[in-house]
Protein: CNTN1 protein
Amino acid sequence: KGELRMQSLTFDDAGMYQCIAENMYGIIYANAELKIVASPPTFELNPMKKKILAAKGGRVIIECKPKAAPKPKFSWSKGTELLVNGSRIRIWDDGSLEIINVTKLDEGRYTCFAENNRGKANSTGVLEMTEATRITLAPLNVDVTVGENATMQCIASHDPTLDLTFIWSLNGFVIDFEKEHEHYERNFMV
Structure:
């Protein structure tokens, strides 16, 4: 195949590699640089979010994405409690923390710890629970004669600390009310 495979790389393997393909009609060359990367975990470029919101009864994924080489091992804590995989909590291979069926008791400070053979680092964020958004009045099926007007309603309850936006779509395509203002009209009820 013309493949070169290398295992258990060290810094001595870094450099410019050249592949030469040759037959009776001639010879061609191709070059590539191999860089060997090794660094302790750092959150400088990608710190954890300082504030993470999760809906009551919902699912939240808290990302932990430090720069590190080789890939670090991850662990998590909530306050001073070390977290382990369980029925509601899971630590993914990429370092993310997943919590399902979020409750008020899940609120607090979460810290991700990353460690490899070069060093260790951690980053912390605060998880806050919000009330889940729910459709309280869903649109109903409507039969209308051609040429008549129709009104469809959608009302939702939501956490008062968050903004709410309604998006309408037709057959999977979002309606652009500015472009289609002659056909569709959006009414806001307070």
